[in-house]
Amino acid sequence: MTYLPPVLQVPLALLVVVAAIYDWRYRRIPNWLTLSGVLLGIGLNWWVGSAVGPEAGFGPLRSLKGLGLAFLIYFPLYLLRGMGAGDVKLMGAVGALAGAANWFGIFILTNILGGLVAVVLLLFKGRFGKTMRNVGYMLKEILFFRPPYLKKEELDVKNPKAVTLPHGVLIALGSIGFLVAAAIWAPR
Description:
Structural class: mainly alpha
Helix content: over 70%
Number of domains: 2
Number of strands: 0
Number of helices: 7
Order of helices and strands: HHHHHHH
């Protein structure tokens, strides 16, 4: 965890809050928002790196590593139809702003929060047992290199029978939580 200067904190917070609102209301994250986040992340990291010097670790390479790591982890989930393309692009933009090391912290926090919210949602809908069986089925299918959604349509995030969460909201919560934690504990 590294401290992000305010010039990166503010755009990151704005990006994820706007994305969360869009995802909550429309169940999609617009391309103009994610592309703006990627370009802003690369540009601001380059600007901060030139202002404080490359030894501080900022620069376009830091941004591109964050973007690349996000796509490396999230794109396979999209291919397995476990999440939408907007979620992948949003996490790419978050990585471009935060850098790879910070992105990984945001990723962990987002997934912990997502897991907790998912358990509560599944218990509330009475689908916890069925979901656990589906998880076992998905793991088995993935071990044999078969997409799980081919035989069980409810495992496709685009299917109306699927229990889904607006992942943009969880990304926003994880990102804001990370910014708060970094402000408190990260060395400056």
